[in-house]
Write the structure tokens for this entry.
Amino acid sequence: MYDVVIIGAGIIGSAAARELSRYQADILVLEKENDIANSTTMANSAIVHSGYDPVPGTKKAKFNVEGNRMYPEICKELQVPFKQTGSITLAFTDEEVKTLDEMEARSKKNGVPVRRIKRDEILEREPNVKRNVREGLLAETAGIVGPWELAIAYMENAMENGVELSLNNRVKQIHKEESGFEIITNQNRYESRVLINCAGVYADEISAMAGGEKFNIKPRSGQYFVLDRNSGSLVNSVIFPCPTPESKGVLVVPTVHGNVLLGPTSVERENKDGLETTKEGLDYVRTKVMQLVDPIPFRDVIRSFTGLRATSDRDDFIIEESVKCPGMVNVAGIDSPGLTSAPAIALEVKKIVTEILKDLQPDLAFHPYRQGIVSFKSLSVEEKERLIGKDARYGNVICRCETITEGEIVDAIHRKTGATTVKGIKKRVRPGTGRCQGGFCEPRVVEILARELGVSREEVLYDEPGSYILTGRTKD
Ligand SMILES: Cc1cc2nc3c(=O)[nH]c(=O)nc-3n(C[C@H](O)[C@H](O)[C@H](O)COP(=O)(O)OP(=O)(O)OC[C@H]3O[C@@H](n4cnc5c(N)ncnc54)[C@H](O)[C@@H]3O)c2cc1C
């Protein structure tokens, strides 16, 4: 019998697992995909929001503001890329200037420091913003992060502290029993005293499966363009338009790795797995971002993608022990700003779980620090030479766009949350994220994966089960 089973290894399940690993408890995380953070945590704007936007008094406002404050330390402990770039919301019309007034008032209520800035200061900070801008709201505490890197780091640290992770393991049935839960998956049967539902867009189905509260999650899709690192200096901070009631609008966002994201749209979808991009959606992004920044180098678009917000019909995050099914904690409806809120949501989950399991004892051996994968290209010449001297694989550059070495790729495979697919490698050390999108390095990554995992090259997957890259030999 486990003390805690967590369903879902996105940012929320991973952060919760790490917080709970501070206790002497048997904890298992079940994830239906073959890697951590393969769903919404993989496809979002990657912004650590300051917290002026959510309606005061909501869970979104509370956890956003608390989460934002926790980011610098968490990212330091877990060695994850994070930059406090600040954000500027732009007003171009009289109407939008009034919206900034409302947002400023809301910021005060949420306890978020902001400052109104005039056109000259905006253009000094952001020379590519359209010159007809009138005013802006600057939030210096906003930032950007590597979302899946953070989820992976959280899980890695949780596993170093004793948490078990089981991938390719889809929860199919849940039975409430006197002493806890019976959980049946495609792989096995498990028992647990407490169940934590962090299943993203599927959290409504998990709650219903266990006999818990009924709520509906309607995915809202967001489509994006990604610009190559050539365009990394397009903006210095996160650039927002004035928000609408449905969304924060279409943004221009620098990324921690020097790319730029343009997006997202916000459209309700029926399909919980519908990740396709559409011409209509991307045209909308194009039109909207051109109203904020000019010129946008669309020739530098290297990729487009879609993410799905897990928007619930309760209009706020759901973070509570189920009344209908005691012992199950629903962490559901975690749409934006869920990434920002994750560290604070994890603390709340810890509080709820320790109130249910009063006998849990702190684990005095808990170790909060995680050693990240060395980024070869960011080392000094002397450090590079020293590293190559110790391990010649760091002298073998596999990805020329991003300067990623064989040593980094091998490290990404042999960690606790090790990569087993080409996309898994890409998420951890970035070969294939540059201009060539893997055109040059992918065959070499396949070779390294096959060698290190002890499988044939034909068995190596790009991403989900069945996504084989090589189907057979053309010549013997
Ligand atoms: C377009 C867009 C933009 C966003 N921008 C931002 C932003 O800039 N800043 C911000 O703070 N937030 C942002 N968000 C929100 C943020 O991305 C999410 O709140 C966060 O990623 C949610 O994490 P999660 O762990 O709840 O969900 P997920 O990452 O979806 O994880 C849920 C996991 O549960 C697993 N699962 C589901 N069902 C089962 C089952 N039956 N058995 C086993 N496993 C199961 C899934 O496979 C998945 O891995 C954005 C979201 C979107 C879509």
